[in-house]
Design brief:
Helix content is about 30%, strand content about 30%. The chain is α/β, with parallel strands linked by helices. The protein has a 6-stranded mixed beta sheet with strand order 3-4-2-1-6-5, with helices on one face. Helix 1 runs parallel beside helix 3. The radius of gyration is 17 Å and the shape is elongated.
Length: about 150
């Protein structure tokens, strides 16, 4: 199981950023061809935007058919709203950013989130896909307004 080399976050903070369901992916690479962009956009839609829409539609989470879970309700200070994910690659050749998938492919990435932007820097498209998975795990529903947030 992969582990982060470094992780920084605001533990026990009430600060959050709101993430819009209309979140778009900007790919900052001139060498990423249509197949490469299609791979990235499809994964982004499946892992991020579709999941945000599903999370925003949940009205009640139950483990059983009878009792709702009494989740603690928190109030968050929304610092900003994110509408865009900016993706760039360390390398700038198609063979390096979209190689044939095999054992040993570099899947590393860096994920940075601020009040207005999510920035991903990946070695390969497979690293970008794992960055999307990590990002999805960070997105929560804000019970106050039923919008998705990152704490």
């Amino acid at each position: 199981m992969p582990y982060p080399q470094n992780a920084t976050f605001n533990y026990n903070s009430s600060d959050a950023v709101q993430v819009e369901s209309s979140l778009i992916l900007n790919i900052d690479s001139a060498t990423c061809n249509d197949t490469c962009k299609s791979f990235l956009n499809n994964n982004f839609k499946d892992i991020i935007t579709d999941q945000i829409i599903k999370k925003e539609k949940v009205t009640d989470f139950r483990v059983s058919l009878h009792e709702p879970i009494d989740l603690p309700r928190h109030s968050y200070k929304i610092l900003g709203t994110i509408y865009r994910v900016q993706l760039s690659f360390i390398e700038d050749s198609l063979e390096k950013i979209y190689p044939k998938l095999e054992i040993g492919i570099d899947e590393s990435y860096t994920l940075n989130i601020n009040e207005t932007l999510i920035y991903i820097k990946a070695t390969t498209v497979y690293g970008a896909k794992y960055a999307f998975e990590t990002l999805n795990q960070l997105i929560r529903i804000n019970n106050e307004n039923k919008k998705c947030i990152i704490i």
